[in-house]
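Notebook entry, structure prediction.
Reason for the run: the old model in the group folder had no record of what sequence produced it. Starting over properly, with the input documented here first.
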Amino acid sequence: MARSLAGFLALFLFVLICGAASLFQPISDSHRSAALELFTPTHGSFKSLEETYEALRTFEVLGIGKKPDVTATACRSISETLGLLTSTPKDLFYALKANSIVKCKINEKTSEGIITRLNTAVNGASSLLDFYYSIGGLVLIKDQTSKADVYLTDAEGVFRSVKAFSQSDGRWRYSSNNPESSAFAAGIALETLAGIVSLASSEMDQSLIITLKNDISKLFDSIEKYDDGALYFDDKLVDGHEHQGPLSTTSSVVRGLTAFAAVTAGSVNLPGDKILGLAKFFLGIGVPGDAKDFFNQIDSLACLESNRVSIPLILSLPSTELSLTKKDSLKVRVNTVLGSNAPPLTVKLVGAFSSGSKDASLVESQELKFDAETGVHILSSLPKSIDVGSYTFVFEIVLHESEHEKVYVTGNQTKVPIFVTGLIKIENAEITVLDGDLGSIETQKNFIHGLISYIYRLDLAGQNVVSLSANHLQKLRISFQLTTPRGRAFKPHQALLKLRHESKIEHIFVVGNSGKQFEILLNFLGLVEKFFYLSGRYDIELAVGDAVMENSLLRAIGHIELDLPEPPEKAPRPPPQPVDPYSRYGPKAEITHIFRAPEKHPPKELSLAFLGLTILPLLGFLVGVLRLGVNLKNFPSKAIPATFAILFHVGIGAVLLLYVLFWLKLDLFQTLKLLGFLGVFLVLVGHRILSHLAAASAKVKSA
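New structure, fully documented this time:
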């Protein structure tokens, strides 16, 4: 039970610390390690060009140098796909996507054929995805070829055709036949329209661009929010085939938004906090375990890293747990979402509040010192007003240059949960057995002299134990004091006293406190029924634990021999103790076999006489053979028959020898097993020799 109580304390403290944390960290080495595990080629290549592009794009964004070399197989697959006349616009799109990274050479004739086929696909497109793959393919081939005539002759007409799928709430449909709209389709539409603008041979009608910017604002009006400030898009499940999760949907919108902002003049009228909220959503996911989700996360963060709307800056802490004992410094980092260095700025600690309290800030606003070598903002020592406990620190980021305020977004203020730990002083610990009815604590203080049976000073930090005895008319008092490193009273989350009887029945009591003093008084007269009138030895354990207490303890402080009265007839019985489910797998009791006593053997002389009688038939056989004489005239003279004849007689001798061994040492099962092998051997060689003798006899008779 001690183990279970310790485990409960550890689990409680762990959940308390982890449950309050809502800190976002930029991309780290853990993502790079996960990328190499998730994107592993099979026999030197990936399953499709789509997977090839996603893997290579992820490696490129994360800057992974030691990555699988799939260039040769990728170029071969790209060349085959681009050269096939049966390749769909989707096939061409992903082939060109992959080629944008591996940089395989495409000849002019192939390029011209691709441009012609994609233009034809644009003219015949009837759905949003048709436009997406064909327009996207033209944008990619334009960047990968030297030809300057890759453009749309009627860009505004194509723009209006795609715009026809939009809805009044900023969402888009996949086709005119599908009435359902989604944010995922809106992201695809924005990326497609960005491609149309870049392929236009002349400047687009600005009214179309303005209308589309208004649609983007409407789309962001429907964005959803988590409590930690993360923003995301999600589609209601209408058609399982078309439904995408929040990660895929939000990733689609981010790609479309950043692509459109990159090709249009002016700015997209979106609050910077919404861009920061999207960044928090992708970073809050952690490290996805699915390759597709991982790509969506990394690719979206790469889009946010270099977008023309607002570049989010992320405030993070290497550690949110600070120790007063170790005199830890408060360290803060500010980076982009991919971990790049931030522009010149200042980090301020503008407030610190005790968790769950609405009181005024415990600290005054102060700047953190920037260390240029490590890129960390440092507060070397915590203010004296900060003691052990859980706090919410409020940080503010101030950019040095006003021009950067138009490029970067930092958010107003960032709240971070901080846990300050330390060694708690445990002092004046005593365990006392009291006689008589002492009434209140004040009465005990006044009349304590002469009423104390035992009083022990406890060293809870050491290993000393005490041995006490008491009866039902006495009381047990345990007291101690807890003080923080700053000298203030400390109240832990749990202070428990446990008494365990030798029959494994346990009783747990909560230790109360008044300021620094913790005390519990057990009146055994009022506890006899709770103790089921069980006299005997009770082990005493004290548990004191807290999330911020570096020296939480679970100590056996001794035992007490209790002499309780005999139980009355209707006294409650102790509950049955639970059976350990793992005891069924433990060692079993040894089984002792009792064999029947052997029967009395006959005299030795009688046994030898019967042995002689069993040998008489063998002697008779030998005498008969000697009298008749041995006839070897029919023994084969040729080599092969003679060999089988010899083996046959050897087999008969082996059977006779086996009988002797059975008599001397072998058991029945061993004998039958060996006799089975010898029997098969005798049948085979015997059949051969008898067949030979029969054939020889037939020749003699015919002659």
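Summary: The chain has four domains: 19-312, 314-421, 425-439+451-575, 636-702.
The old model has been moved to the deprecated folder.
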